[in-house]
Amino acid sequence: MKKYKLLQVAVFAFSMLIGFNACKPKNAGTAVNADAATKTYVAPGKYDAYYNFVSGGFSGQLSAYGLPSGRLLRVIPVFSVDPEKGYGYSEETKPMLNTSHGFVPWDDLHHVQLSKTDGMYDGRWVFANANNTPRVARIDLKTFRTAEILELPNSGGNHSSPFITENTEYLVAGTRFSIPPDDKNGDVPISSYKQNFKGTISFISVQKDNGAMDISFQLQCPGFNFDLSRAGKGVSNGWFFFSTYNTEQAYTLLEVNASQKDKDYIMAINWKKAEEYFKAGKARKQSVKYAHNVYDEKTHSATSQIKTEVSVLDVKDFPDIAYFFPCPKSPHGCDVSPTGEYIVGSGKLAALIPVFSFEKMLKAIEAKDYIGNFEGMPILKYESVLYGEVKKPGLGPLHTEFDDKGNAYTSMFVSSEVVKWNIKDLKVVDRAPTYYSVGHLTVAGGDTKKPYGKYLVAYNKITKDRFLPTGPELSQSAQLYDISGDKMQLILDYPTIGEPHYAQIIAADLVSPNSTKFFKLEENKNPYRSNGEKETKVVRNGNRVDVYMTAIRSHLTPDNIEGIRVGDEVYFHVTNLEQDWDVPHGFAIKGALTGELLIMPGETQTLKWIPEKVGISPFYCTDFCSALHQEMSGYVRVSPAGSNVPLKFSTGKIEETATDSLKTK
Amino acid sequence: MKKFAILLFLGAFIAACGGGNSENKDNPAPSSDKPVATEVPKDASGNPPYDPERGEGKFKNVQVSENLDAAMAANGEKVYGVKCSSCHKLTSEKLVGPGWLGVTERHTADWIMNFTTNTDAMLDKDPKAQAQLEICLVRMPNQNLSDDDARSLYEFMRKNDGVK
């Protein structure tokens, strides 16, 4: 009888399988073909073919995923402290989060840009923006660490940032909020917006050899909201295109008041011209304050410098830098096709997608085909710049990327879908639903001159029922599509950290061979390093105590310290003496208000500790390192302030057993 | 009998899944077919039996002169201070790893230099290294010594063992 039931179950299961194959599934749970798993399966121990760098949105961090598996490889701390890595907690990394406002522990990271050579990813760096307290960061892909952070003056809400030129000559950073310039007294009525508020676009130069960033010059622009941008490439190299909204210059209830006009503008900037004017000394110097933070991989330390001057070109004084052309309904994305010829504007509230022609734009400029001007800057005629419109693409177009076969893919926020259309004839050729409300999307290599195609990832704003529920807070979601065929095929859902805004996908072999495995002890230039256990020591200078400590499997040296007093400022400078891949050590001491450390092989990191209680404070290694990891520990004896217990330290020294007994406090 | 039929059915199903797996080989995703393990150096003569006196690694027939090269030993002492002294005493006392006194009498130069530069592979294979691991229970870290460092260290070990 039992056997018969089992057979029934098997037959039922089999018929279900056939049933599923027979009908095209349509609902959210089943809109997946049976071979999806094989397309995303990367066997244990095998590597993914692509790295996917994804913004962590309001987490302030950047994540690195492997594709097509969707494995989370690493969360890279950028604009927020990160207890997992000690970033922003160790004395060496704290300066990275310094700004002209002081230490900012948490920001909002939106857009990701891989460095490029000749319009293709070169695997050297990733750049990303802090949206709230305006900054741009450079992440080194040798170490997967934040190497540099540059604050931006005259900016509020660094949203159209960072976008880069085809040889990484410049990153641009356009302000979302226009504000009064930093060198003016901004204590003015908000209603003086039109008169006093200005938009600024920063041109950040990037040094070819080492990636060092600097604000080369800023363009002072009209008081609009600058939303997104792309550099021209190929035929349009030398230009930048920025979407703008709130050209109404409203300052309240923007939802209504910044949506009055039928069209806002795309601003085209001839950056080669702007660069010429800057180099010819035409910029004015403006007094400002901004932080420039650099992490040095030799000293394993960051430094923060406050800079005080920036060069500004006011675009209205230079008639051949800036041109506007109308774009329907509060454009968001402003994306440039692989050849550089087409500029796709995505009006958030528009029922069509306008595609502009760079060639036609140049002709319209030449012919002075203007319909007016804004503060003296020409506004080109819509029809003269337009290549054509994608009709009825869906609702709420936001962002567009491109594949290797002449297709464009636009995310549709309101209708929750990705729409594929042909760049030449502007016909919609496919649509795929997203779950739910897609924001950014990325195609592998999708903003380069030669996109890889193959995969597309949609980054969704709403997750709802896609994963097991986790209370009111849910992870955001990414969805991977195979776009190698005529039809887009959803093959994977996976959660992301924070809110994924933009992301980029790069071939793994451009990055993985360069990955640093450990830091060489011989090259460690941290002033507080201990080059071997013989250099460990404890030094008192007034109430400052420096502990020069080493960590190696499986002990810390020194591991007995006496003579520390309540109120001392104790700095543990821990050098990890290991010289092999993947052997970090951790360090934690009871009651430290500053956090913990994680120290990579060959590195020195410092934890500040101010003991507040008399007694014995244990410390230990927090990162499991060997069979005797539990033994990797020690004790600090803390005596009252003013005590004359002598300072001493040791490891492995067995003293004559003391017989002092405990006294009640 | 019916049970057998079910097994047969399931078997066919699993075989079908197997087919799916082989299809996956066409998937360009796994960019590396190489195992992650450390690469095993090949010997010129083809496939010789394991030589426990030499160990495994790049060093073979290391030339050692009768007298100490003092400069080389001094350099080795510096390397010892940075990369070895945390775990190895110069006496016969065990700290984390065995004390170094007499090490050059217990092992050949080839073995020591192979072990200090090809640590993981030797710990996985070499009987003498494995015997030490059973005593110490901490895998000796690969400290990424250069060839010169390894040779200098050996010279320092000789000095520690009384070679003049």
Describe it.
The complex is a heterodimer of chains A (about 675) and B (about 160). Chain A contains seven helices and 45 strands. Chain A has about 675 residues and is mainly beta. Chain A folds into two domains: about 475 residues, 7 Propeller (Methylamine Dehydrogenase, Chain H), CATH 2.130.10; about 130 residues, Immunoglobulin-like, CATH 2.60.40. In chain A, strands 6-7-8-9-17-18-13-12-11-10 form a ten-stranded mixed sheet. Chain A is globular, with a radius of gyration of 29 Å. The N and C termini of chain A lie far apart (about 75 Å). About 5% of the residues of chain A have low confidence. Chain B is built from seven helices and no strands. Chain B has a domain of about 90 residues: Cytochrome Bc1 Complex, Chain D, domain 2. The N terminus of chain B is likely disordered. At the A-B interface, helix 1 of A face helix 1 and helix 2 of B.
CATH architecture term of the largest domain in chain A: 7 Propeller
Find the CATH superfamily of one domain in chain B: Cytochrome c-like domain
Low-confidence stretches of chain A: 10-26
User: Could you give the distance between the termini of chain B?
Assistant: 83 Å
Q: Tell me, what's the shape of chain A?
A: globular
At a glance:
The complex is a heterodimer of chains A (665) and B (164). Chain A is mainly beta and 665 residues long. Helix content of chain A is 8%, strand content 43%.
Helix-strand blueprint:
The complex is a heterodimer of chains A (665) and B (164).
Chain A: H1 2-22, H2 36-40, E1 50-55, E2 62-67, E3 71-76, E4 98-99, E5 102-103, E6 109-117, E7 120-130, E8 135-140, E9 145-151, E10 160-164, E11 170-174, H3 193-196, E12 199-206, E13 213-221, E14 225-231, E15 239-245, H4 254-257, E16 263-270, H5 271-279, E17 284-296, E18 301-314, E19 322-328, E20 331-336, E21 342-347, E22 352-357, H6 358-366, E23 370-374, E24 377-380, H7 382-385, E25 386-391, E26 397-402, E27 407-412, E28 417-422, E29 428-433, E30 438-443, E31 455-460, E32 476-482, E33 489-496, E34 503-507, E35 537-541, E36 544-552, E37 555-557, E38 560-565, E39 569-576, E40 585-589, E41 597-599, E42 604-609, E43 615-620, E44 633-639, E45 648-650
Parallel strand pairs in A: 13-18, 36-39, 38-44
Antiparallel strand pairs in A: 1-2, 1-34, 2-3, 4-5, 6-7, 7-8, 8-9, 9-17, 10-11, 11-12, 12-13, 14-15, 15-16, 16-19, 17-18, 20-21, 21-22, 22-25, 23-24, 26-27, 27-28, 28-29, 30-31, 31-32, 32-33, 35-36, 36-37, 38-45, 39-42, 40-41, 40-43, 43-44
Chain B: H1 2-23, H2 70-83, H3 103-106, H4 109-117, H5 119-125, H6 127-136, H7 147-160
Helix pairs in contact in B: 2-7, 4-5, 4-7, 5-6
